[in-house]
Amino acid sequence: MGYHTSLYLFVFLPIALLAYQFTPKKMRWLTLVLSGYVFFWMISGKLVIYLIGTTIWTHYIGIWLANLKMQCKIHTIGKEKQEIEITQKQYRKKERLVLASGILLILSVLAYLKYYNFFVRNVNVLLDTADSPILLQAKTLLLPIGISFYTLQAIGYMADVYWEKISAQQHLGKIALFLGFFPQIMEGPISMYSQVTESLWEGQGITGENLSQGTVRVLWGLFKKMIIADRLYVFVSAIFNYYENYSGVIIIAAAVGYTVQLYMEFSGCMDIIIGSGKMFGVTLPENFRQPFVSRNAAEFWRRWHITLGTWFKTYIFYPVSVSKIVKKWNRFGRKKLGKYVAKVGVSAIALFPVWLCNGLWHGPRWSYIFYGMYYFVILLGGIMLEPVKDKWIKICHINEEALYYKIPQILKTWVIIFIGELFFRANGLRAGWQMFKSIFQSFEFQKLWDGTFLTFGLDKADLIVIFAGCIVVAIVGMIKERNLLGELGIKRLWLPIRWAIYYGLILTIVIFGAYGNGYQQVDMIYAGF
Amino acid sequence: MDSLMNILTELDSSVAWEKEEALIDDRILDSFGVISLVAELEDSFSIEIEAAEMIPENFNSVEAMRKMIVKLQEK
User: Fold this and answer.
1) Which residues cross the membrane (chain A) (predicted)?
2) Which entry of A148, A238, A315, A380 is 20 to 30 Å from A346 by CA?
3) How many whole angstroms separate alpha carbon A268 and alpha carbon A271?
4) Are the C-beta atoms of residues A141 and A113 closer than 8 Å to each other?
5) What are A74-133's pLDDT values in tens digits?
6) Best residue in A312, A321, A354 to probe B by mutation, most B CBs within 10 Å?
7) Collapsed DSSP state (helix, strand, coil) of residue A355
8) pTM for the whole thing?
9) What 3-state DSSP class applies to A419?
10) Closest residue to A343, CB basis, from B36, B49, B52
């Protein structure tokens, strides 16, 4: 049951909303938790036990950490400064151990279910090369839906309690709600405990205002997914699945097509998810902010899958960069090698685990690991070249805000994104490399207009609909980027225009949506991660 | 706290540091800038900045940085 299916939109969501509204305010959290578990069970069946297990474990670790902090305070009352420091150190060690155990257990479950067979495959290749008679056995492992998302949320919660950013939650229901809110269970956004839990717990009634705002957001998501992404899926699959037959401009079109498909699909699903949350009065964090106006790869990642980037920055990048060993290197580097080398060194050490984890998080494939390393190299290259760029801008008196500078920067970022997504989507790293190489073989520009593009499962009308849809999304993105409608957003428009937009959206989805005969229902891409 | 201003000016002299209230949120100070700043602050004020302190609220303004430094010195 994807968020774009009729089962979710016309059955599950309305029933959950009604059940929520008819439950007494104090018990509404329970309705949300149960709805989450039913939703999970409808997709992953008895694997819901993993979610329940993670919830209990996360709650337990939080309480354990809170108890240690309390004991530490009690044991330091009335003691000398030196004794206090020793006691605090001892307790800090214990807390670190508890946090490590907490994270290790849930990460082990994720690693076992998601990466075991990948590990076996690769070890077997090595054993085979060494002519070993023993080979490891692969296992049939079922992956619970959303495990990559709720595991990160659980780790974030434990770390926040350890760092005292939040207090440990005594009520198991609040942790269950935080990890199991059904609109975000499959694809995120990856929230921090302090961002959403209180508003989920509050149990405020459904209001007309929230319902209408949520509905518009859901419709906008359906527009992106059903009109653009699901159409592009046909075109993209036709090329990526038979990539050996194509080269040059066709491969470029496939890379661009897939990038647009992924954006429309993932951000569209986010709109449905955030809209669903809004209906319950919950504001979930945004995951996209006009990524295609980015001027470099670093900015792109601040605008694309924002909550994943924020999670990696908060729980990997900063902890690594302020760890004792990195600080030592930083001091040594700055003294002996200069600030520039120290900065590049620290950035490399802190960025490497972030991008390795980013690649691995997407799944057990070498192409995903390559994708992570690709961005690691590009971002590090950006840091290394920064002084040269600054000097060049100064010498040439370049106005960084002028269009003649901005547009080439944006186009350069597009190329980086398209190449990255080509490898991301390709059926394996070897296929990705073959496709990339084939761009430079028999380019054949004329295929852009000689009708070749109509042989990939889409007709002229489909291509026009995709193109028109993209223009609409670009215009809306521009309005958002320039904040033309202010905080009020669409509410600022004259009522008849607003209603014309609402009806227009519904009619466009009904008429131009890629569903029914001739179209295949397309699963949500990120639900597979 | 004059040394804080010296550190910030050395980091980027084009920024009106005292006036800015959203250094992190407005991306005036990026994560790499924050790492460089942390190293300078630790050396100049004999403090230890841990991962728990790495939140935008502590680096969004000069005042927030001052408060964090005082808090860590008292620790």
Assistant:
1) 7-23, 29-52, 97-116, 141-163, 337-356, 368-388, 463-479, 500-519
2) A148
3) 5
4) yes
5) 888 888 888 888 888 899 999 999 999 999 999 999 999 989 888 888 888 888 888 887
6) A321
7) helix
8) 0.89
9) helix
10) B36
C-beta of residue A318 within 8 angstroms of C-beta of residue B54: yes
**Domain spans, chain B:** 2-74
Please answer yes or no on whether A319 and B51 come within 8 Å at the CB atom: yes
For A39, list phi and psi in degrees, rounded to 5.
-55, -50
Question: Taking Cα atoms as reference points, which of A100, A91, A61, A96 lies closest to residue A73?
Answer: A91
**What CATH topology corresponds to B2-74?**
1.10.1200
Name, in order, each residue with C-beta under 8 angstroms of A423's C-beta and a sequence gap of 6 or more.
Answer: A367, A370, A371, A374, A429, A432, A433, A436
Compute the mean pLDDT over every residue in chain A, rounded to the nearest whole number: 89
Q: Using the 8-state DSSP alphabet, how is residue A226 labeled? A: I
ipTM: 0.86
Retrieve residue A228's tokens: 């653009």
- Residue matched to tokens 């670009």: A474
Q: Look at B52 and A298 and tell me if their CB atoms are within 8 Å.
A: no
> Hey, what long-range contacts does A143-146 have (CB within 8 A, 24 or more apart)?
A143/A47, A143/A113, A143/A114, A144/A40, A144/A44, A144/A47, A144/A48, A144/A50, A144/A51, A144/A113, A145/A40, A145/A43, A145/A44, A145/A47, A145/A185, A145/A186, A145/A527, A146/A40, A146/A51, A146/A185, A146/A186, A146/A187, A146/A527
Residue type, A217: R
In chain A, what is the straight-line distance between the N-terminal and C-terminal CA atoms, in Å? 16
Query: CA A100, CA A102: separation in Å to the nearest integer?
Result: 5
Is residue B39 within 8 angstroms of chain A, CB to CB? yes
Give the pLDDT score at A523: 66
Per DSSP, helices labelled H in chain B are 2-11, 31-45, 56-59, 62-74
A115-119, A252-256, A458-462 — most confident range = A252-256
Residue A203: which residues within 8 A CB-CB, separation 6 or more? A23, A25, A26, A27, A28, A29
Spatial CB neighbours of A221, under 8 Å, sequence gap ≥ 6: A3, A4, A267, A268, A269, A270, A271, A272, A273, A275
Banded pLDDT at A517 (limits 50, 70, 90): low
Alpha-carbon gap: A11 to the closest alpha carbon of chain B (Å): 40
> Are the beta carbons of A186 and A146 closer than 8 angstroms?
yes
Neighbour count for residue A160 (Cβ, 10 Å): 20
Between chains, do B35 and A165 touch, taking CB under 8 Å as contact? Answer: no
Give tens-digit pLDDT for B7-64: 888 888 888 888 888 888 888 888 888 888 888 888 888 888 988 889 888 999 999 9
Q: CA–CA separation, A263 vs A279, rounded Å?
A: 24
